[in-house]
Design goal:
Blueprint (H helix, E strand, L loop, with lengths): L1 E5 L3 H12 L3 E6 L2 H11 L2 E4 L5 H6 L7 E4 L4 H14 L3 E5 L9 H8 L3 E3 L1 H14 L5 E5 L4 E7 L13 H6 L4 E7 L2 E3 L12 E6 L1 H10 L10 E5 L3 H12 L3 E5 L3 H10 L4 E3 L8 H4 L7 E4 L4 H13 L4 E5 L5 H6 L4 E3 L1 H18 L5 E7 L4 E7 L20 E8 L2 E3 L12 E6 L13
Parallel strand pairs: 1-2, 1-4, 2-3, 4-5, 5-6, 12-13, 12-15, 13-14, 15-16, 16-17
Antiparallel strand pairs: 7-8, 8-11, 9-10, 9-11, 18-19, 19-22, 20-21, 20-22
Helix pairs in contact: 1-14, 6-9, 6-14
């Protein structure tokens, strides 16, 4: 695909790296000549120095013949203008990064009236990810599939987990829940397991289930608590903190934000009347303890520096807070995991992943049945959502007679709003939506998963 990226900051550079590695033709536009020079040298892409909202610059980048323009500058209005201009010139699709909270209520209006294919708010995505984690505090990460009908939970297997030493087929037999372990991370390896696969301490298992079945499974393992998260302390009142506190407050959760900047604290106190705003530095001695850290159900570190977030998160863990979530912009998630911080979120990575899912689905959907694509197991495996067409030759073939390729599994079927976790007697039907998990070469069409 021919892709134009306007703005090469954190999100733009991450997108450039990934899309160039996937053999797309990428052109980067940025006002900073040094940024343009660096990106050309680092990723072997074309670079243009200039204003991406300028007609002449877009014409120089051949936007009129491009498949997609992604506007990821630091200015929302500039991103919107870039996309509107690209649409008029003839670009097929456009994505704008829009971060301002005041715009969050009019995203649908902007999409439908400005011709923008997709709007992404990294901070809002991060807040939503934190909310999903808080809903299942014992899970490391929760990912929604199929318009929210299916959840994919990443669960760490600790020392006392009763699944240790048990084969996967035992889960349904013992707990009577309809869940499917579709992938396992063991060390640096991503494994697509069969029923005889034995779970070990230190594994991270990826489980697909409906929301109710996931609750039943977590409860059976002693990892789910009926009482919801009622008290949350947030260190840092930036955009992520604002979005998170607003959504938590709307569910009658008691939210306390520690924000050291006086003007920002004043703004938050006016914008979030249901939250308690403390103008103080969370890294100062005893501040969190004085503010009742020990009484919190969850602690979320959202300060500007990764190092500060890591330190105060480790302190919260030492105080036995039920769930600790850490924001990171630069430090590797693997590094933070290695020091005991399991739930780590990155607004940049979340925004990048959402855009990449759109790009990959757009690319793969040409002549295939792919609807969406997700990276899981730290990017070592992928989950693809397919629609099953009327003429698929294996419609009606029961799964026990259907030979899938190695390292491929059908994780679930969505049929007429019903979620099915397939067994040997199930089969595919026209109109089904299915989630396929693969740790090898990405299937480009539904036929590619069959031997």
């Amino acid at each position: 695909m021919d892709i134009i990226i306007v703005g090469n900051g954190k999100v733009g550079r991450s997108l450039t790296r990934q899309l160039a590695s996937e053999s797309h033709n990428v052109v980067v536009i940025d006002k900073n000549p040094r940024v343009v020079e660096d990106v050309i040298n680092d990723f072997d892409v074309m670079g243009i120095c200039g204003n991406g909202a300028c007609y002449d610059i877009q014409m120089q980048a051949n936007v009129g013949k491009a498949d997609l323009l992604i506007a990821a500058t630091q200015t929302d209005e500039l991103n919107i203008l870039c996309c509107m201009l690209a649409k008029q010139i003839g670009c097929r699709h456009s994505i704008a990064r829009v971060r301002t909270p005041e715009y969050s209520k009019q995203l649908d209006f902007m999409k439908s009236n400005f011709g923008i294919s997709m709007l992404v708010n990294p901070e809002f995505e991060a807040a939503n990810e934190i909310l999903r984690i808080l809903r299942f505090p014992s899970a490391i990460k929760i990912e929604p599939f199929a318009s929210g009908r299916v959840e994919l939970a990443e669960i760490g297997i600790g020392d006392d987990n009763e699944l240790i030493g048990k084969p996967i087929h035992m889960i349904h037999e013992k707990y009577h829940v309809r869940v499917l372990v579709c992938a396992v991370k063991r060390g640096d390896n991503a494994i697509i397991p069969n029923g005889d696969f034995v779970i070990k301490k230190g594994d991270r298992i990826y489980v697909t289930a409906s929301r109710s079945e996931l609750v039943s499974f977590m409860r059976a393992l002693g990892l789910y608590h009926r009482s919801r998260t009622r008290r949350v302390m947030i260190a840092g009142g930036g955009k992520v903190g604002y979005y998170l506190a607003k959504q938590l407050s709307d569910t009658n959760c008691k939210v306390k934000i520690l924000e050291k900047d006086k003007s920002r604290a004043l703004y938050l106190s006016e914008a979030l009347p249901k939250a308690e705003i403390i103008c103080d530095d969370a890294t100062e001695n005893d501040i969190m303890e004085e503010q009742g850290l020990d009484k919190q159900d969850a602690f979320v570190a959202l300060m500007g520096r990764d190092e500060e977030n890591a330190i105060i998160s480790m302190y919260a863990l030492s105080r036995k807070v039920g769930k600790v979530i850490t924001k990171s912009n630069r430090i590797s998630i693997d590094v933070l995991n290695s020091i005991g911080l399991d739930s780590v979120i990155s607004a940049k990575e979340l925004a990048t992943d959402r855009i990449l899912r759109y790009v990959r689905a757009l690319h793969n959907s040409e002549g295939t049945e792919v609807r969406t694509l997700y990276r899981i197991v730290d990017g070592k495996a992928e989950a693809l959502e397919f629609s099953v067409p009327n003429d698929f030759e294996h419609n009606g073939t029961v799964f026990r007679e259907l030979k899938l390729k190695k390292n491929v599994i059908i994780a679930c079927i969505i049929r007429r709003n019903k979620v099915i976790f397939p067994g040997g007697s199930d089969c595919l039907e026209a109109g089904d939506r299915i989630i396929v998990v693969s740790s090898t070469e990405r299937p480009r069409a539904l036929e590619d998963i069959i031997e």
